[in-house]
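Sample pair:
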Amino acid sequence: MFSISPLDGRYQDKILDLGPIFSEFGLMKYRTIIEIKFFQALDKVKVLPRKISKNENDFLNSLINNFSITDFERIKFFEKTTNHDVKAVEYFLKEKMKVGSLFDCMGYIHLGRTSEDINNLSHALALRDGIKIILENYQRVEKLLLNLAKENKKVQMLALTHGQPASPTTFGWEMNVFVARLRHGIKQLKDFKLKVKLNGATGGDSALYFAYPKINWRKFSNDFILSLNEKNSEIKFINNPFTTQIEPHDTYRELFDLLRGPNLVLIDFNRDMWSYISRGVVVQIPKAGEVGSSAMPQKVNPINFENAEGNLGLANALCEFFGSKLTISRLQRDLSDSTVERNFGLVFGHIKISLLFIAKGLSVIKVDQKAMEMELEKHWEVVSEAYQVILRSLGVEDGYELLKDFTRGKVVTKEMMYSFIEEVAKKHKLSKEIVQKMKKITPQNYVGNRNF
């Protein structure tokens, strides 16, 4: 009722799938997963006092698979005493093991680990699951844009460079530019590898090396981290053995920079759509019952694209902050990164909301081909590029200057352009075939190669 952030208020229903990942519940769940899997890995290298049975492993796996609100609340109960969230997870697991056959092994939970070993791996799992959701939504928008591009592949449109009439394009081409850019950003995300660490209090696994000198703990950490990777997951984890207490987070910066990439593409797209709607070449379909303005009844505002732009800008501001903040830590570590990492979900929430609004915006627009044709017909000066190149190819050296003097700063009609051609042809003794060739070039067909 009294949400501070719109993510937990106005937009909560749009990001329900992100809640279990980036909430406090999610962080405790991922910590529980890492602690249990680490405990099971200790069993494989024979650190535990005895071999764990299949039933005991099944029990441990059930704690992961059935992690519940009740479990979360129990961890929070322990935290009230410990004032340390990772230690609270440890005590929760020990309590679970104490009442069963694993009571004699419970002392090995969190053995030789520092909180940051657990935390950085937990955040990695959350980021991986969050990226999975965001990628699905990026790809949905990519598909919608591709369909829009294909549907309007041959729809000619006046281009504006520097806001001025320029050589024509097609609406499909313009949309496909965004498709190609977005696709590139998606591929970079899919190819991304996140560095994580599992090497103790200050990076050397000192305690474990002294307690169990025969075990290659660096290899153990590498194997453990690789075991967390999923076959069908885009983001992969790799071990960083050279750290202080914390993994230096350089790949956090890379990841959030990668997220900024497609977001910038889509900010650009939203602004272009806003402009097309403002020009009247793209029309929004009114929905019964909706209001565009509390004062002006006629208005149908491009609110979906505006909302998306705002959310993407906010997400990118956070991405930039995460990259600059998290790569800096005093000496072997300070705790200022911890509270920042708890806000990762904000980026994913704002990105997802923006992608939903883009999809919604695309569902209520139509391209007004007639408006585009009328706009082109008003600007015959845009074919001057073609004319000057043809003239120069025929040996009229000042072809560019002739067109510049005739068209610059003017709105030129078809009749004016035809008259110009005939005058130049007469002066430079150009053939009738050349004149006809030039007259066949119109703002409606001068689009070049727009295949994709």
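The longest helix spans residues 115-151.
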